Amino acid sequence: LDQFWAQCEQTSNCTVQLSQLESELPKEWFELLSNYPAIYSDWKTMESIIPLDSVDGLEARVALFKQSTQQVWGELTHQLFADQFAHLDFTISAKALNLVEANEFTLHYHKLMAQWQGKAEALNADTAAKKYELAISLLPSSFSPTELASIKTELQEIYLDDSQANNIVAREQQVAQQQQTVVTYHEQLAQLKSSLGVLRYTS
Prior knowledge:
Helix content: over 70%
Distance between the termini: 73 Å
Order of helices and strands: HHHHHHHHHH
Low-confidence stretches: none
Number of strands: 0
Shape: extended
Strand content: under 5%
Number of helices: 10
């Protein structure tokens, strides 16, 4: 839709192109294409005023967002926003992972992905490696470092081959080293400032 209007406006022949497409498109899609600039403008306005902050709970916010899109985009809403709705619905489903015990996380995640396998591409989880990355992003912050390390090992055994697992471990070690370097730098900087303070005081 964006591409069509961008191209036809460059060549100043939108009316001609629309007339050529009228017989080729289903009525509802042709009406959407014809009115797209105005509808898109209405949508940007709607997006800016959706009172998401006034609604408590992720489920209620998602419902409000869907209702708002329906008001603007009409009967084609679910086709136009299919991937975005899938992400939102998956996020709601994934909240359940915050309630499971650490030793059951991998099992529940595997069941969750089985339920959503038809939407794997929309969720950017259409390969084993991507499923691993998604699982890592969903790990609850309440798990201890030991529990997290154990779960990561389980997930690597399920979703990654040896080469991928080794690359992940190497990358995590590199990040940990960089973080430690930053911590050490700040500690040394604090010590230096403290020493300078003492020197000023004694002088």
